[in-house]
Design brief:
The complex is a heterodimer of chains A (151) and B (85). Chain A has 151 residues and is α+β, with helices and mostly antiparallel strands. Chain A has four helices and ten strands. In chain A, the strands form three sheets. Chain A has a four-stranded mixed β-sheet with strand order 1-6-8-2, with helices on both faces. In chain A, strands 7-5-9-10 form a four-stranded antiparallel β-sheet, with no helix packed on it. The radius of gyration of chain A is 16 Å and the shape is globular. Chain A starts with a strand and ends in a 5-residue tail after the last helix. Chain B is α+β, with helices and mostly antiparallel strands. Chain B has one domain: Beta-grasp domain (Ubiquitin-like (UB roll), Roll), CATH 3.10.20. Chain B has a five-stranded mixed β-sheet. In chain B, a hairpin with a 2-residue loop joins β3 and β4. The longest helix of chain B is centred in the middle third of the chain and has 9 residues. Chain B is globular, with a radius of gyration of 12 Å. Classes of the chains: A alpha+beta (151), B alpha+beta (85). The interface between A and B is medium-sized, with 29 and 18 residues. Chain B: Belongs to the MoaD family. Chain B: One of its GO terms (biological process) is Mo-molybdopterin cofactor biosynthetic process. Chain B: This is Molybdopterin synthase sulfur carrier subunit. Chain B: Keywords: Nucleotide-binding. Chain B: One of its GO terms (molecular function) is nucleotide binding.
Chain lengths: 151, 85
């Protein structure tokens, strides 16, 4: 398991390659990359600043990965979340999961993202032509996280 | 008794005009929820911590509910629902 909270960009290709490097037992790597969009709530977004809670952020992400490792047979996990000011098109988050078969990798990757959305202490602030505003949490994110408790 | 290290984040930090403070555990405050009520009672901008506002809490860097106990010396954070990812 490896978790990073950083200002710098990341190389998704290199991260995916690293998840199977030296382990021929890996038969599947699923990955997710989240990007800054140029629009939200019908307004143009010129930039986004991600604030976080140093210390708790790393701990929360590590706990989410440990929970995923308890639910699926995983051979490697990598989570990177950026903070600071980002422009549309820039990468925000990377989740990569390696496993023997695709089912575990797909499910764990989605689970980690759903839990990250509701449990990791990050907050987005968008800059729009009408000024800056904090992004509201979405009920659909809570629902996405809650469905993992049902099964 | 050692002081609480209280932290505020994001829109809550802006509403309070402060990112944190150190505070001796107030008389009668035994839980995170009671601490929140104590702070909200300061009036004006502190109403952002009031009942009915969507505020989450962490105790020593773990998300907790209002019943989480305080003894003094802990790190307590208050913040809006998270929006990362």
């Amino acid at each position: 398991m490896s978790v990073s909270v950083q200002r710098e960009d990341f190389d998704a290709g290199a991260e995916i390659a690293a998840l199977s490097a030296g382990n021929a037992g890996v038969g599947a790597v699923a990955s997710f990359v989240g990007l800054v969009r140029d629009a939200g709530h019908d307004q143009r977004v010129e930039a986004m600043t991600l604030e976080h809670y140093p210390g708790m952020t790393e701990r929360a992400l590590a706990e989410i990965v440990v929970e995923a490792e308890g639910r699926w047979r995983l051979l490697g996990t990598r989570v990177i979340h950026r903070h600071g000011r980002l422009l549309p098109g820039e990468r925000i988050v990377f989740v990569g999961v390696a496993s023997a078969h695709r089912g575990d990798a797909f499910a764990a990757c989605e689970f980690i993202m759903d839990y990250l959305k509701t449990r990791a202490p990050f907050w987005k602030r968008e800059e729009t032509p009408e000024g800056a505003r904090w992004v509201d949490a979405r009920e659909s994110d809570d629902e996405a996280a809650a469905r993992w408790n049902a099964n | 008794m050692s002081e609480l290290n209280i932290l505020y984040f994001a829109s809550l930090r802006e509403a309070l005009g402060c990112s944190g403070e150190r505070l001796a555990l107030p008389d009668g405050v035994r839980t995170v929820g009671a601490l929140r009520e104590h702070l909200a009672a300061r009036g004006e901008g502190w109403a952002a911590l009031g009942a009915g506002r969507n505020v989450r809490a962490a105790l020593d860097q773990r998300m907790v509910g209002p019943d989480a106990p305080l003894a003094g010396g802990e790190e307590v954070a208050f913040f809006p629902p998270v929006t990362g990812g």
